[in-house]
Amino acid sequence: MSRRRHSDENDGGQPHKRRRTSEPIEIEDRLESLICRVGEKSTSSLESNLEGLAGVLEADLPNYKNKILRILCTVARLLPEKLTVYSTLVGLLNARNYNFGGEFVESMIRQLKETLKSNLYDEALYLVRFLSDLVNCHVIAAPSMVAMFENFISVVQEQDGPQVRCDWYVYAVLSSLPWVGKELYEKKDVEMERILNQIESYLKRRQKIHVPMLQVWTAEKPHPQEEYLDCLFAQVQKMKKDRWQERHILRPYIAFDSVLCEALQHNLPPFTPPPHSEDAVYPMPKVIFRMFDYTDAPEGPVMPGSHSVERFVIEENLHCIIKSHWRERKTCAAQLLSYPGKNKIPLNYHIVEVIFGELFQLPQPPHIDVMYTTLLIELCKLQPGSLPQVLAQATEMMYMRLDTMNTTCIDRFLNWFSHHLSNFQFRWSWDDWSDCLTQDLDKPKPKFVKEVLEKSMRLSYHQRIVDIVPANFSALIPANPIFVYKYMDESSSSLPGYPVTIAISNAIINRSSNDEILTILKDVPNPNQEDDDDEGDSFNPLKIDVFLQTLLHMAAKSFSHSFSALAKFHEVLKSLTDSDEGKLHILRVVYEAWRNHPQMISVLIDKMIRTQIVDCAAVANWIFSPDMAHDFTRFYVWEILHSTVRKMNKHVQKIQKELETAKEKLEKQHSRKKDSGDEEEDKNSDEEDGLLEEQIERLQEKVESAQSEQKNLFLVIFQRFIMMLTEHLVRCETGGVDFNTPWYKNCIERLQQIFLMHHQTIQQYMVTLENLLFTAELDHHILAVYQQFCALQM
After folding, report:
1. Where do the record's region annotations for Disordered lie (predicted)?
2. Tens digit of pLDDT for each residue in 106-139?
């Protein structure tokens, strides 16, 4: 017996101890799971789930109060689509435990201050909205919420703050009113009227120079593209006119009104908006994307009007669902389709409009472009009977409005459409778009179809594209992506350098070294020089022609073959391109040889920049050179330019990071030396300091050099834009013709695109740009783009 008892103690005692240490963690995980999942699909009603959860949390408050506070503050910030569910839960807890309610409000205010300090303005917005909904749950007293809103609106009176700062505080107040406007107006109508009057006065005097730069369409018909604050103010004004009635927000607290109205309320501590600081990064203004109205959804529920507050609430909630679940496309699609109140609205139309609104958002979409493609594919799988039809209708509408669509958005549209088609066997009713066949090829519709087919070919192969498209579209089908070798056969024997190509070809086959190749190339005559001139080191275009044409031809089988060829003969290529002219010419040769295969041109140039055969400025100069005039408006050209600028920016950031790391290391060593009294150690430390200081000096020089290169790249790009646009405007004025051609629209919007896509980097060089390029003498059409850009961060 004693032996068994002993083993029982041993066997049972140890696990029991382990369980005791892990039990709090298990309970904390369970609490987190219960709180995060409340309001999701359940056999019981939401109200009974909330009541049950409030009971569980109340029982756990004595031991896990801090954990519960932390979880509730986090979900208020990160799960805004379940805002009213959590505000009701906090209301129920406050009714049962007044002190906990007070601590929660204090935690929320503390968190609001931290998010504003950390430039997390979206999260701060959700916290403000949550606090305002706590008024409905009788947690916060209405007068103190109004006082907080008054403090927010006082920001518009500041003299030296940027407009984007005022915009955020105004938006924070306006976007909370659909939830709490009625309650605040009933309790504090005079003060609320004053707040709305101040907002109206601010909106009237507010600058809106930036709007054209952010609009998806330049035309105001069929749907006006409104600035976001103007649109929201109109929606709130209509709501006020309708006596603050709103029929779309889920309000679970109404069921608990008898319990909640007995609860004691808390006053918000005085909240003063933190002063403006130079490192504050406020959200950029937006333009509201509109694609559908009630006439587009023929059957079923009616779509709310653009100025009804329901439209704002639905769109806001759908944006929040995407923001919370965008990393998991299946979850995101399921959450969107199980949206509460979906039977009261044409949900598929709202979802499609919101997704395209995000995809086309300028300057950048909130998430990577491919996420929207995969999300729409997932939605089509979940709703095969209805969503593909809405998506096809949206695609048709966008195609019909291509003439007035922003060029950056056309890029995103064609990227999405070609990727989407590749997932559905490239099936499309191409005959419906046959109107593009009667138009000039530089017009938006034929251009779009041509680019879509070219992009589709990247995701398939040439013959497949030929087979899927009707025969009458042949003019828009991309060329067969074959290499154009100008030294192909005997008929090319009269070309200068032909004999050398045979020698080069044999040398490559025989695995000759770089030096042996260079020796062969020495015999190539220089067409830029007289016969009796000594060649010296001057640039010889024929050498580049002969060598690179032959090398690329022999490696034309695949990307990998081409990359290996560039790597193997890197030394030869570097010696041929040691001048700016040489770098330009090597790009010309790549273009001539692969002009039927834009993707190959893109990847080869990318590789040449990475291996420093060409530099970023050379690529920019080549794109704007007369050689590229024929392809200047083609999509792949701008893909190359943006990729080049991004590479330059990443290079600068990498060196800056290395410099910061070295400085931090030196600082740590200095503080360690202060704390240590060891002479021997101090001596070693001095040596290390000396080495680090040298490294910092070298890195400082590298950073300055890289920044100078970066600034030069932007100067080259903007200078070339200005020259081309000015020449076009002068030519049109002299000839008495309209300057607003498809080429001009494309070019001016590409200029906008450079500003928008690289706005954070360009802002560092604003003074230089203003002094050297965007001066008052510049044509006002071009200068307007620069002024719109400046207005974005005003």
Report:
1. 1-24, 663-690
2. 999 999 999 999 999 999 999 999 999 999 999 9
**DSSP notation for 669-701:** HHHHHHH---HHHHHHHHHHHHHHHHHHHHHHH
Tell me the C-alpha to C-alpha distance, in Å, between residue 353 and each of 218, 247, 543: 18, 21, 55
Q: What percent of the chain has pLDDT over 70?
A: 93
Which residues make beta-bridge pairs with 405? 217
The pLDDT tens digits of the residues spanning 424-435 come to 999 999 999 999
Angle formed at CA 486 by CA 482 and CA 491, multiple of 5 degrees? 120
Q: What are phi and psi of 725, to 5 degrees?
A: -70, -40
pLDDT for 16: 43
Q: Which residues contact 663 (CB under 8 A, 6 or more apart)?
A: 696
Q: Closest Cα to residue 246, out of 142, 341, 149?
A: 341
For residues 110 and 273, the answer to whether their CB atoms sit within 8 Å is: no
Tokens of residue 210, six digits? 């930036």
| Sign of the C-alpha dihedral computed for residues 130, 133, 138 and 142 taken in this order | positive
Q: Give φ, ψ of 305 to 5 degrees.
A: -65, 160
Rounded-to-integer distance, Cα 8 and Cα 13, Å: 8
**647: number of Cβ within 10 Å:** 15
pLDDT at 68 over 90: no
DSSP 8-state class, residue 577: T
**Contact (Cβ atoms closer than 8 angstroms) between residue 292 and residue 398:** no
pTM: 0.90
Lowest-confidence segment of 121-130, 450-459, 485-494 by average pLDDT: 485-494
At 263 the pLDDT is: 87
Rounded distance between C-alpha atoms, residue 640 and residue 619, angstroms: 8
Q: Which residues, 6+ apart, have CB-to-CB distance to 644 below 8 Å?
A: 605, 609, 616, 619, 620, 713
Tokens representing 691 are 């080495």
pLDDT in tens, 160-179: 889 999 999 999 999 999 99
Cα angle for residues 744, 749, 753 (degrees, 5° grid): 150
Give 472's DSSP letter: G
586 within 8 A of 576, measured Cβ to Cβ: yes
pLDDT at 7 over 60: no
The CB-based long-range contact list for 617-622 (8 Å cut-off, 24+ gap) reads 617/709, 617/712, 617/713, 617/716, 618/580, 618/583, 618/584, 618/587, 619/587, 619/644, 620/644, 620/713, 620/716, 620/717, 620/720, 621/580, 621/584, 621/716, 621/720, 622/584, 622/587, 622/588, 622/591
Q: For 322-379, what is the HEC assignment?
A: HHHHCCCHHHHHHHHHCCCCHHHCCHHHHHHHHHHHHHCCCCCCCCCHHHHHHHHHHH
